[in-house]
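Hi all, long-time lurker, first post. I run a small reading group and we've been trying to get comfortable going from sequence to structure in the token notation. Rather than ask abstract questions, I figured I'd post a concrete chain and ask someone more experienced to write out its structure so we can walk through it together at our next meeting. Sequence below, copied exactly:
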Amino acid sequence: MRQCLDERQQRFLSLTDKVVPALAERAGRHDRDNTFPFDDYNDLREAGLLRLTVPEELGGLGAGQAEMLPVLERLASAGAATALAYAMHVAPLGSWALTWRRTGAPPLAQVLQLAGQDRLVLAAIASEIGTSNLFLDAKTTATRTEGGYRITGRKNFATNSSVATMWATTARYEDPDHGARLLVLLVDPSVPGITIEQTWDTLGMRATQSNDVVFDGLFVPEHGVVQSIPVGHFDAQVLETIICWTAPSFGAVYTGIAAGALDWAIAQIRRRGLAGDPRVQDAVADVEIMLEVNRSVLQRHAAEVSSHRLMEQLTVQEGLGRCAFVKNVCTNNAAAIMTRLLDVVGGAAYMRGQPFERMWRDVQAGLIMPINNRTGKELIGASSLDVAVAPVADLQMPGSER
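-- Answer (accepted) --
Happy to help. Here is the structure in token form:
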């Protein structure tokens, strides 16, 4: 089904379409060779898309979440791994831009200006084996030292670490006055104390090169700490500036993979003269309906975030549940779409030389990405039953007293 898009969405998609053919042509090679798509990033930079969500007055294109999500979908239809890595850059910038417009915080302006000059690429590197992805705690530790902290630990799923020039990460700090805290930190990956271990050999999303990262006494200066949260607490700022943007960006990427698979399947259907088969039409209709459900959910979420209604009208736990709902509806539908298309694609879906096989593998990663189905249902069910999953920290903006 054709989408009804506004003028701004159409304009950004026209820009995106300039890089899509090259991404599609390279995707199979990067997947096969297990290599990061630096060439795709060069194209994204030249097209101005690395500046997509940076405010225009700071050198960017000024896209909001409602414009960003269709761009991610379109990119993912061509190169899923590139789109997912790119999402780790463009979504944080979008959240910071929204916060900057409301607060005018100078540190955010400085970061956004660097991005507006194509001098900054972001990566969010917070995942650890055995810890929640809800920013409740970390096994990585921070130790106080003169002028800042020493960070020691290991992170996994470090998407975009191959290309990013600034990382956002987390560490637990045993504050002698305030107890255990989770610090959210900005890290320069070029300084000593960081090792990227080549551990990434996966079923799908291979080109993201989401390798493990080891911090060994990494020094982070005091001003690199952007947030301090009591361990075990939900945090409103994490919800607003991180999860409200990462959850839909993941949803858009996996929606895009499924949309790309449908486009490929339709080409096969027409080539084989099956367009008039009612069974084929039924399968295609099922897929189109699921795609439209995803897009509707994503655009509602974008409207609630940009208007600040999500933060004003929902509790933090409800907001987290809402984000989980958005991400999981999209990723579950994307996986279901691939299975439904098997009914019409047949044996071609099993051939490595065809893009459908790669798309099927890539889609499976969406089911394990945060916030996963199990955690999401806990948040939604507990909220409906007025059960607190965790206490909520007081709102604390960057630069406030820690």
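A couple of things your group might point at:
Strands lie at 122-125, 141-145, 148-155, 166-175, 179-187, 194-197, 212-221, 225-230.
The first helix runs from residue 7 to 16.
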